[in-house]
Amino acid sequence: MEPKIVGRRVKKLIKKYNISIEGLAKKLEITEEELQKKLEGEEEFFVSEVIIITEIFNLDIKTVSQVFFSEETEEEKKENEKTMKL
Question: Which domains does the chain have, with CATH numbers?
Answer without folding.
Answer: 3-85 (1.10.260.40)
